[in-house]
Amino acid sequence: MRKVQKGDRVKVIAGNDKGKIGEVLTVFPEDKRVIVENVNFRYKHQGRTQQQREPGIIEREEPIAMSNVLPICPSCDEPSRVEFDEVSGDKVRVCKKCGGVLD
């Protein structure tokens, strides 16, 4: 189980996009990186291909380090660190500030 999962609302705490809030779109656990909605945009100059007739500049989100984001707790609505706890035999993620369950 990871501290940040797909679908979590997170706040960026470091980097050029510090302070932005978005939803996790993809998680790459082996690289410890995540793609967050509307964070870390990069431009790619795309040439003409057989599938895509129009060349142009494509704007897309790039992965950022998982350590640079904090999940936002749904109960206290604050970004906080995560700890793992057992609730009725299941391992769940718990907010360190208020003790609310993130899963």
- CATH topology label: SH3 type barrels
Main sheet: strand order: 6-3-2-1-7
Largest sheet: 5 strands, antiparallel
Quaternary status: single chain
Number of domains: 1
Helix residue percentage: under 10%
H-E string: EEEEEEEEE
CATH architecture: Roll
Radius of gyration: 17 Å
CATH class annotation:
Mainly Beta
Mean pLDDT: 92
Shape type? elongated
Total strand count, please? 9
The end-to-end distance, rounded to whole angstroms, is 11 Å
Helices and strands: which structural class?
A: mainly beta
Note poorly predicted spans.
Answer: none
Number of helices: 0
Strand content: 35-45%
Topology:
Elements (H helix, E strand, L loop, with lengths): L8 E4 L8 E8 L4 E4 L4 E6 L9 E6 L2 E2 L3 E3 L10 E6 L2 E6 L8
Antiparallel strand pairs: 1-2, 1-7, 2-3, 3-6, 4-5, 8-9
Notes on the structure:
By secondary structure, this protein is mainly β. The chain has one domain (9-95): SH3 type barrels, CATH 2.30.30. Helix content is 0%, strand content 44%. The chain has no helices and nine strands. The chain has strands spanning 9-12, 21-28, 33-36, 41-46, 56-61, 64-65, 69-71, 82-87, 90-95. The chain has a five-stranded antiparallel β-sheet with strand order 6-3-2-1-7, with no helix packed on it. The protein has a two-stranded antiparallel ribbon with strand order 4-5. Strands 8-9 form a two-stranded antiparallel sheet. It is elongated and about 55 Å long. The termini are close together.
